[in-house]
């Protein structure tokens, strides 16, 4: 593990391999270790960087509220600090939102995007059911981080019964990374992006979805496909919200094939 001082916070990261910089942007309630299974596969011909977003994993948990825009700024600054721009960004869930928003704001830093079920709820034509967010926020506000993590895993990521099936180490990591998500959920910009901003996006993009995705996640990816007609799409037929963990070989193979075709 290495660290870099970025925007007033020390961010932890792992870097392996040589070649085009390829950066993993993790989702909420998790950290860079979620990419452990795909890192050696993608580092064979690339400089693969996985970092902990501010407040997550081994990165510094700074006082005060962090907005989605702060995570976007952190990612851009980290790419510059590590001489990793333009980078191929791989983002999952909330990390997909961060990656897309950086590409919109600073396209010169982004060589390509590969995003799996990003949390861009606002692009759906009908308001989605986000009751799970309110339930998780209430649990965090009363100090029950494990209850919040359980809600997110079972109601928004993997389905009923998934929490108890996770290894204890994984459950501990989700609980540790629960508090910073509260700040994300409180941000009015969370899950929101202007459709016209997406339509103007020109970086090569791969949109992926799980064949067992929650209906809302599948709908987001479908809508993104309409707003980004140039984007490629792939479905991990037997996977859900975290194919990089459940189907790492397939995930790495699909991503590598896409990246090999990026100019």
Q: What labels describe this entry?
A:
single chain; 263 residues; alpha/beta; Rossmann fold; 8-stranded mixed sheet; globular
Short description:
Helices cover 43% and strands 18% of the residues.
Task: Give a written overview of the molecule.
- The model has no long low-confidence stretch (mean pLDDT 95).
- The longest helix has 14 residues, at 68-81.
- Strand 7, helix 10 (215-227) and strand 8 (232-236) form a beta-alpha-beta unit.
- The chain has twelve helices and eight strands.
- It has one domain: 3-Layer(aba) Sandwich (Rossmann fold), CATH 3.40.50.1820.
- Strands 1-2-4-3-5-6-7-8 form an eight-stranded mixed sheet, sandwiched between helices.
- By secondary structure, the chain is of the alpha/beta class.
- The protein starts with a strand and ends with a helix.
- It is globular.
Layout of strands and helices, then pairs:
Blueprint: E1 2-6, E2 9-16, E3 21-25, H1 39-42, E4 47-51, H2 68-81, E5 87-92, H3 94-105, E6 110-116, H4 131-141, H5 145-157, H6 162-165, H7 168-176, H8 178-186, H9 195-199, E7 205-210, H10 215-227, E8 232-236, H11 243-246, H12 248-261
Parallel strand pairs: 3-4, 3-5, 5-6, 6-7, 7-8
Antiparallel strand pairs: 1-2, 2-4
Helix pairs in contact: 2-3, 4-5, 4-8, 5-7
């Amino acid at each position: 593990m290495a660290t870099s001082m970025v925007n007033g916070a020390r961010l932890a990261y792992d870097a392996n391999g040589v070649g085009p910089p390829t950066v993993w942007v993790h989702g909420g309630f998790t950290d860079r270790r979620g990419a452990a299974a795909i890192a050696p596969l993608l580092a064979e011909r690339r400089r693969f960087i996985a970092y902990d977003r501010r407040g997550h994993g081994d990165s510094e948990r700074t006082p005060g509220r962090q907005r989605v825009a702060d995570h976007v700024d952190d990612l851009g600054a980290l790419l510059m600090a590590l001489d990793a721009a333009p980078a191929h960004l791989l983002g999952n869930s909330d990390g997909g939102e961060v990656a897309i928003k950086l590409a919109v704001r600073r396209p010169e830093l982004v060589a390509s995007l590969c995003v799996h079920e990003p949390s861009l709820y606002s692009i759906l034509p009908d308001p989605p059911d986000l009751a799970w967010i309110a339930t998780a926020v209430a649990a965090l506000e009363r100090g029950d981080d494990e209850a919040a993590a359980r809600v997110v895993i079972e109601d928004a990521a993997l389905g009923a019964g998934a929490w108890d099936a996770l290894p204890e180490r994984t459950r501990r990591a989700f609980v540790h990374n629960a508090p910073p998500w509260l700040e994300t959920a409180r941000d009015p910009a969370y899950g929101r992006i202007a459709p016209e901003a997406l339509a103007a996006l020109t970086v090569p993009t791969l949109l992926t979805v799980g064949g067992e995705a929650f209906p809302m996640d599948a709908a987001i990816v479908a809508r993104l496909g309409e707003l980004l007609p140039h984007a490629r799409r792939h479905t991990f037929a037997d996977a859900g919200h975290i194919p990089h963990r459940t189907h790492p070989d397939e995930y790495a193979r699909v991503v590598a094939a896409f990246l090999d075709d990026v100019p």
